[in-house]
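In response to a reviewer's request, we include the raw inputs and outputs for one of the modeled complexes. The two entities were modeled together in a single run.
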Amino acid sequence: MRRVYVVVQALLVAALVVQFYLAAVGAFDRPHTDDSFALHSENGMLVIPALIVLATLAAALARAPGRLIALTIAPLGLLVVQVLIIVLGNAVAGGDQDPTGPAALAILGLHAVNGMLMIGAAATVLRRARSLPAKTDRVDRAPTPVA
Amino acid sequence: MSTATLVTLDLAAALVAAALWASAGALTVRGRSRLAVGLAAGAAVATSGRVATAVALAGRGWWFAQEKLTIGVPLLLVAVVAVALTIRRGGTAAATAMLTAGYAAAVGLALTLLAGYPSGWGVGLVCAAVVGAAALVTRRALAPAPAPGTLRTGVAAVLAVGLAGGALSVALPGAPTDSGGGVADAAPPGGRTVSVDELRGPDTPDPGGAVRRYTLTARRASVTLSSGRTVAAWAFDGRVPGPPLTATVGDLVEITLRNADIGQGVTLHWHGYDVPAVDDGAPGVTQDPVPPGGSYVYRFRAEQAGTYWYHTHQVSDQGVRMGLYGTLVVSPRVPSTVESVDLALPVHTLDGAVILGDRDTAEERRVAPGTPVRLRLVNTDSGPHRFALAGVPYRLAAVDGTDLNRPGELTEATLRLAAGGRYDLAFTMPAGAVALVVDGTAGAGLRLAPDGVPFARTGPEVAGWPEVDLIAYGAPAATPFGSGSRFDRRFTLVLDRGLAVVDRLPAYAYTVDGKAFPSVPTQVVRAGDLVAMTVVNRGFATHPWHLHGHHVLVLSRDGRPAGGSPLWMDTFDVRPGEVWVVAFRADNPGVWMNHCHNLSHAGQGMALHLEYAGVTTPFHGGHGAG
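The model returned the following structure tokens for the whole complex.
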């Protein structure tokens, strides 16, 4: 199960890197349309959350320490923050189609910073998952001695 | 507080609740129970916040709150009760309960963002199973040796609930049609059905009218803009916009559409013109798309005066964006005033350049003082544009082709024009310079000045002018029906984003009632029905709503009754959190598209059909919306 955990977590890190790539694709797409970020939004709202949930499940089944499990699911919270940054920025601008003033842009720019936090968290998890003792789950399946 | 703000606050409260409950649980695991209790108190406050925002949203309309109040909040409250029962004991039980409250808050958040309205039993059971499974896994992780029977019962219960929810979601597909609460029977009186391609209009002009024949050929073209920039486009007759079409009320308009080399095919949709069904140009509904080398003849009598436009409806997001559009202006038979300067000015974004008419730089024209001027603004893009007219008081004479009743004089105002919509601006040329500014920029625009007067260099300084609210503009007048009328059918469309199947693939789609085209139930009406349609925007994007074949009368917005001139529109911007109630008489039998005119949204699911009982279509295609 530890191997599954590592593989899923590695896929998550890859999906997050792809997400940055797709953000740049959207930003440089000309002419710029609502479709420019279609792949970015599919990857962000479908693939990434699914991988986070799978990784967390794998972490729990691999009997990873509680703190690591919590760190594994942390990007999901940051993902919601990603959505909220957009929602809040658009609300400050007056709507998604209204011109962005300095205040709205100041908020919307955080989307990139928070995205980096997500990658950082996911990469930390991957490193710790790889250094988990390989045989954890076999050992844990043995009856736990009662204190 | 605006509904959109409440929606944002609600999400924030759910997020904070999830984070604080999870942190409180984690601290309890690590034995730092005092800090944990503090965080739990904060989490309880955030939880109350979410309950409060959900209740407040229910006050704005059940659609905004349903999944929160029937699934998300109850799940969260059950977990919070578990926290209350265990917090004194502390230890594993309290930690599990707090973490579970965190999961419940997070699942409630995901539910709002991914499923939305309506969320039924199936979705609710799946959510309960997810929270239950997470609770069990947590319990197992924290206390490795619980009584085996308890765990087994728990796992069985979670599996049963999850499977039941999954089965319910799959086994209960939505009804294929929505009768709007009217007579459910879709069969026409007498049982006879008619095909859309039989629903033709007259093929002669009114007495005294003429026959106007046009041929439009769609082809790939290279277009040079006024700035000198050359753009690859898809164009009618090699021009963007396509040739302006004009007619007089009573004329018969006959347009032959040819497709030279647009591989995806083309059609012509007469936006805002309530043509007979067969001439509507909706591929897969009223005709097949015209392939390269093919042609199709549209024929309709010009019966509405005003400003309209035409565009391809096949793969319309790409086709219109690339340039397959033009204006259609119909003059009244007996004109009330003849404006000697009468300009049709479609605004479009072509390969990133905003163009007004066919120019991406300001157009300068000499106009003598005292000249009556009419500017017909057409938004052919997928998002709204903002216009400001500087240097002269003016009137917004017509909206979506229909004259307003006693429109008031406007100065220093911003006119926000929905995607697909039209505004006619009328004024008398003053002695000074006049500037029409688009989106507060000095780029594409119109500059008018009498001889010898320098043209205005107006630009961003107009950007802060206040927006005109059409719902209170002009003077009331009698309408054939209104809020007090007895409606034969009432439809509600709830617009959002969510998980849905688009083009056979799961996607984060633009949805109507939680479904994406073609799974959105078809609205069925009978000829002659008076129909009320409520359009609710639960999401975070603006949706310009467009019903083919009919003009709708705006009854209210966010509960505020329309108080100005009667507003007959064919495309109205439903902004985030807004609720529009509009009405129309079902007087144009056919099968009609009813969709978001942000064509990218339509292509990602935000579309449906409105069908008259007994009308069938022989055409089948997946491109009706896109």
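As requested, we also summarize the result in words. The interface with chain B takes residues 30-35, 38, 41-42, 45-46, 49, 57, 60-61, 63, 66-67, 69-70, 76-77, 80-81, 83-84, 86-88, 90-91, 95-97, 99, 140, 144, 146 of chain A (CB under 8 Å). DSSP finds six helices and no strands in chain A.
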